[in-house]
Amino acid sequence: MNGLRSHQRRGYIAVGVAAIAALALAGCTEGGGDTSSSGDISGKTVQISGGITGSEADNLQKTFDQFTKDTGVKVVYTGDKGFEGNIVTKVAGGSAPDIAIVPQPGLLASLVGTGEVKEGTKDVEANVDKYWAPVWKDYGSVDGTFYSAPMLANLKGYVYYSPKSFKEWGVEPPKTWDELITLTKTIQEKTGQPPWCAGFSSGDASGWPGTDWVEDLVLRQSGADVYDSWAKGDTKFTDPAIKDAFDAVGTILLDPNYVNAGFGDVKSINSTAFGDVAAKIADGSCALTHQASFLTANLLTVQTADGKTPTIAPDGDVYAFLLPGIKEGELAVEGGGEFVTAFSDDAATQEVLKYMSSPEFADARVKLGGAISANNGADPSLASSEFLTEAMKIVQDPNTTFRFDASDLMPAAVGSGSFWRGMVDWIDGKPTDQVLSDIQAGYQN
Predict the structure, then answer these.
(1) Nearest to residue 228, comparing CAs of 334, 313, 320, 155?
(2) Is the distance from CB of 206 to CB of 424 less than 8 angstroms?
(3) CA atoms within 13 A on the CB side of 114
(4) Is the model more confident about 326 or about 2?
(5) 305-364: per-residue pLDDT in tens?
(6) Number of domains in the chain
(7) Whose CA is closest to 272, among 201, 169, 337?
(8) Of 256, 282, 297, 418, which is least packed with CB atoms within 10 Å of its CB?
(9) What is the pLDDT, as a whole number, of residue 330?
(10) How confident is the model at residue 428 (pLDDT cuts 50, 70, 90)?
């Protein structure tokens, strides 16, 4: 996923289908940039920096084409593969862009700590209050002060499968966790092969796919309050609730009868690149894999057993269901997103911020392909696949319990340090209690 660390490990790029031609906006309406007073900003340039690179960066740049025609403000986006490691230093050194697209609330807090981040404007805050669930505003706030509007969203916890194979085996997507375990056992018995494949390898970020598994189970087994307490560091990794989540994940990932289809044994999970599971799902050698919505992008770069690009649809070559809850009907999901953070308060920058927090911006980016937004004023039918439309409806639904990726809310020494390392050690066979103690020790670093 494009080279940005959080894009590679967390799935913060949107979910992939090929981009289509740039959308010509019909002019900014309520919530967007009212350009009636834009004469004084015409000709100004606003610089935006972020970790989004490649084709995703091209699509982001295209979303400003009509905005520039309407306002005369030129927007220049620059992608930096080392953004997360560089941005705090740049800001502290006086080289901040006008706007930064920040992929983690924890990083936002670090930037606010420099004293250079501007508070959210009234127009932007009004848009966020109107178009997003309150939890998104919380993630864009630090110590009760609102700074950053959310931009795009990414939904995690999907289980990819082959509808054709499910029909052949006489099975259906499960509605509870217990049904998922039963499904796993059934497929193993019918095929004589491990049903699941997984990959934790991601360079310096190896282990992150395992953290997503654990986060999903903490949220589903113990609920949002425990999840929030854990993400804040109040509930320790050594707490029974967290061990319960590890044990549940282990019923799949530590069972040699259930993994690692197409790659090897349990330990091969650590040597398998996280995106390589897409090829095994597409060619049928792996029945089930757990990954964020971004895996659809990887699926479009591989081939089915008959040499074709897989179709992603309920009756296609590949589709996905959300990892089910403990009880049927519960919809608790984790995911990610980016936050639009300002270091300038000039009029042109304010106009860009207002536009980027509007449904018009969300529609423009979603229609270009491979993206979803939790902005509930945006149109999910504009998404570039049925899969993305469904994902977008889920993150927009006020009845959905949505939580940001917990490891991205933890201090870096834990969330992108001891937690990642702990998952690798766990797959390598280190006892769960020792792994949990080792991860918790990261809070002392």
Answers:
(1) 334
(2) yes
(3) 20
(4) 326
(5) 999 999 999 999 999 999 999 999 888 999 999 999 999 999 999 999 999 999 999 999
(6) 2
(7) 201
(8) 256
(9) 84
(10) very high
* Residue of 341, 366, 336, 410 whose CA lies nearest to 102: 341
Task: Assess whether pLDDT exceeds 70 at residue 427.
Answer: yes
Q: Provide the mean pLDDT of the chain.
A: 90
215 and 350 co-located in one domain: no
Give the count of alpha carbons within 13 A of 32, CB side only.
21
pLDDT tops 90 at residue 177: yes
3-state secondary structure 373-434: CCCCCCCHHHCCCHHHHHHHHHHHCCCCEEEECHHHHCCHHHHHHHHHHHHHHHHCCCCHHH
Domain co-membership, 118 together with 66: yes
Q: What is the crossing angle of helices 432-441 and 419-427, to 10°?
A: 160
Asked whether 445 and 417 are in contact (CB, 8 A), the reply is: yes
Whether the predicted pLDDT of 17 surpasses 90: no
Backbone angles phi, psi at 407, to 5 degrees: -65, -25
Top-confidence residue, 136 or 384: 136
Please say whether the beta carbons of 370 and 348 come within 8 A. no
The per-residue pLDDT for 35 is 36
How far apart CA 53 and CA 3 sit, in angstroms, is 7
Phi-psi region of 240 (alpha: psi -120 to 50; beta: other; left: phi over 0): alpha
More confident residue, 445 or 311: 311
Whether residues 101 and 192 share a domain: the answer is no
Q: Which helix (H) or strand (E) holds 142?
A: strand 141-142
Rg of the chain taking only CA atoms, in angstroms: 22
Same domain? 318 vs 423: yes
The domain in which residue 360 lies consists of 5-155+334-404
Matching residue, tokens 């959308």: 23
Do 379 and 400 sit in the same domain of this protein?
yes
Q: How far apart are CA 428 and CA 298, in angstroms?
A: 26
Query: Using an 8 Å Cβ cutoff, are 312 and 388 in contact?
Result: no
* pLDDT: which is higher, 20 or 220: 220
- 121 and 229 together in one domain: no
Query: What are the residues whose beta carbons fall under 8 Å from the beta carbon of 444, sequence distance 6 or more?
Result: none
How many angstroms separate the CA atoms of 35 and 70, rounded?
6
Residues 81 and 116 reside in one and the same domain: yes
* Region of residue 358 (left: phi > 0; alpha: psi -120 to 50; beta: else): beta
Q: Are 403 and 374 in contact (CB under 8 A)?
A: no
CATH number of the CATH domain containing 130: 3.40.190.10
Question: Using an 8 Å Cβ cutoff, are 146 and 342 in contact?
Answer: no
Give the three-class secondary structure for 202: strand
Asked if 253 contacts 267 with a C-beta cutoff of 8 angstroms, the reply is no
pLDDT, greater one: 243 or 55: 243
